[in-house]
Amino acid sequence: MVGIVVVSHSERAAEGIREIAREMGGDVRIEAVGGTGDGQIGTTPEPIREAVEAADGSGEGVVVLVDLGSAVMNAELALEEAAVDEAVVADAPVLEGALNAAVAATAPNATVEAVREAAEEAAGVSKL
Amino acid sequence: MDREAQAEAIREATAAMADRMAAEKSVLTDLDSAIGDADHGANMNRGFQAALERLEDADDDPATLVKTVGVALVSEVGGAAGPLYGGSLMKASGELEEGVTAESSVAFAERYLETVEERGKASVGDKTMVDAITPAVHTYKKSIEVDDCDPLEALGKAVDAAERGVAFTTPIRAKKGRASYLGWRSVGHQDPGATSTLYLLEELLEVAREHLDGDVETDAEADVDPEELAEPAAGGEVDESANSDGGS
């Protein structure tokens, strides 16, 4: 099963987004990572790499959802170092994208590409 | 300048940069408070202190030392500056594997700029560190390859160019980075990343002056202090004129 990693500048935001995505994500593995480790707002690459490797439990790949600027860069750096076969950063809003990805990952035979596409569809959704 | 001397110059440059980041911590944080998240000074200071510590156990090889600094910055700086400064130093350090020469320092500078642009997806005019790095790197390359300057003089001109680049960030509107969320309200504020780049380049120039003075060659085989030159590219600072001894 494709795994999902939620990266936010805030650890609590990442946890909260995971909480919401889990409601519809069944037993999909979702890792939440955020903050700088010393209680500050921000992101660093090492915890993201660890989360990506943890989310790749079954080796079927990982889709990463990110919030702002440095989360994107640190996620890209983390993926360059992570010991996984396939992992991508989705160009999607972090909350809606995580929810879409969680649902897509529950589909039989879901692939990293399919989960990423589902996450990225969230970018075009109008709320009103 | 042999590899050992290059390594020593790199260590000195890193120490000078760490001192400068400590001294400018509140200046950088104030700039970042105006248009960002108010952590740039503290982040850069923490990163360079970590870099100094990691250099203590690193081998005396120019590429290894620069890469070590990059790794430290990536893991300790946090924010966008970590991957931009650290990741770019890590990648560009590969250009110094044969040591620091005028040629390899140009390659280092170009690789550094290219990596920052790719990672940050920023271009000149976005009000980011790219506005300081780009003129510095282009000036450095042209000074060496076209104007036949020695590396020290070229570095001085590069610092001047970076300083103009920093000034250029003030009147423009941010298109990348946290400041872009402010839209037009970002106008009138100097970019923190461009500013720290300039500070680092200024320190590189100072250390280069001490090591290259009267001992500069520009041909490919020269054991110049290129290392130092290379590092500045990464940081990007401005300074007065690099006149000093040209390559004599």
Automatic annotation (TrEMBL), chain A:
Origin superkingdom: Archaea
Domain PTS EIIA type-4 positions: 1-128
EC number: 2.7.1.121
One term of GO molecular function: phosphoenolpyruvate-glycerone phosphotransferase activity
Keywords for this protein: Kinase, Transferase
Keyword Kinase: yes
GO cellular component labels: membrane
InterPro entries given in the database record: DhaM, DhaM_N, PTS_EIIA_man-typ, PTS_EIIA_man-typ_sf
Pfam families, per database record: EIIA-man (PF03610)
UniProt record, GO biological process: glycerol catabolic process; phosphoenolpyruvate-dependent sugar phosphotransferase system
Catalyzed reactions: dihydroxyacetone + phosphoenolpyruvate = dihydroxyacetone phosphate + pyruvate
PANTHER family with a match to the protein in the record: PEP-DEPENDENT DIHYDROXYACETONE KINASE, PHOSPHORYL DONOR SUBUNIT DHAM
NCBIfam families: dha_pts (TIGR02364)
Function: Component of the dihydroxyacetone kinase complex, which is responsible for the phosphoenolpyruvate (PEP)-dependent phosphorylation of dihydroxyacetone. DhaM serves as the phosphoryl donor. Is phosphorylated by phosphoenolpyruvate in an EI- and HPr-dependent reaction, and a phosphorelay system on histidine residues finally leads to phosphoryl transfer to DhaL and dihydroxyacetone.
Subunit structure: Homodimer. The dihydroxyacetone kinase complex is composed of a homodimer of DhaM, a homodimer of DhaK and the subunit DhaL.
Protein known as: phosphoenolpyruvate--glycerone phosphotransferase
Protein source organism: Natronococcus amylolyticus DSM 10524
Automatic annotation (TrEMBL), chain B:
GO molecular function: glycerone kinase activity
PROSITE patterns per record: DHAL (PS51480)
Keyword Metal-binding attached: no
Domain DhaL, chain residue ranges per copy: 8-206
Listed InterPro entries: DhaK_L_YcgS, DhaL_dom, DhaL_dom_sf, Dihydroxyacetone_Kinase
Keywords on record: Kinase, Transferase
Classification via Pfam families: Dak2 (PF02734)
A GO cellular component entry from the record: cytosol
Example of a GO biological process term: glycerol catabolic process
Cross-referenced SUPFAM superfamilies: DhaL-like
Region Disordered, residue ranges: 211-248
Keyword Kinase on entry: yes
Acidic residues composition bias: residue spans: 215-230
Protein known as: Dihydroxyacetone kinase
Organism (species): Natronococcus amylolyticus DSM 10524
